[in-house]
UniProtKB/TrEMBL annotation:
Annotated organism of origin: Echeneis naucrates
Keyword Cytoplasm: yes
Recorded coiled-coil stretches: 22-49
Major place of residence: cytoplasm
Protein name per its UniProtKB record: RabBD domain-containing protein
Keywords linked to the UniProt accession: Coiled coil, Cytoplasm
C-alpha cells in the first residue's frame, strides 16, 4: 500500500465511512488469500495422501490403485487385476478374453512387453 488515501476534501463522517469500506475490502481480500492458500495446501496433501494410501490395502477397497478414482456401484465397478491382484476402475482395466479375467493398464503393458520379447526370442 504505497498510495495514501486523500481524505482532505471529505467531512469526518465521510472520511470514516471511506476508511471503513477500505478496511472491509482489505479484510475480505485477506480472507480470500487465506482460503486460496488453504485450498492449495489441501491439494498438495491430497496428492501425497494418494501415494501413501495406495500402498494400503483398505484404500484399494474403495479406490482405484492406478488413478485413485473411487469405486461406485454400477457406474464405476471395482475389478480385480489378475496379475497384481489390485482393484482397478473401469477406465484402468481391460478384459482379457484368453484369461477370462481383468487386467489393469500397468499389468497389460507389462504383458505386452513380455510377449514382444518372447516373439523376438523365437525368431
Ligand atoms: Zn482407475
Ligand atoms: Zn495389475
Amino acid at each position: 500500500m504505497g498510495r495514501k488515501l486523500d481524505l482532505s476534501g471529505l467531512t469526518d463522517d465521510e472520511a470514516e465511512h471511506v476508511l471503513k469500506v477500505v478496511q472491509r475490502d482489505m479484510k475480505l481480500r485477506k480472507k480470500e488469500e487465506e482460503r486460496l492458500s488453504e485450498m492449495k495446501q489441501e491439494l498438495a496433501e491430497e496428492g501425497s495422501r494418494c501415494s501413501i494410501l495406495s500402498k494400503q490395502h483398505r484404500f484399494n477397497e474403495h479406490c482405484c490403485i492406478r488413478c485413485c478414482a473411487p469405486f461406485t456401484f454400477l457406474l464405476n465397478p471395482k475389478r480385480q487385476c489378475l496379475d497384481c491382484q489390485y482393484n482397478v476402475c473401469k477406465t484402468c482395466s481391460t478384459y482379457s478374453k484368453r484369461d477370462k479375467a481383468w487386467l489393469c493398464s500397468a499389468c497389460q503393458k507389462g504383458r505386452l512387453r513380455k510377449q514382444f520379447k518372447r516373439e523376438e526370442e523365437a525368431w
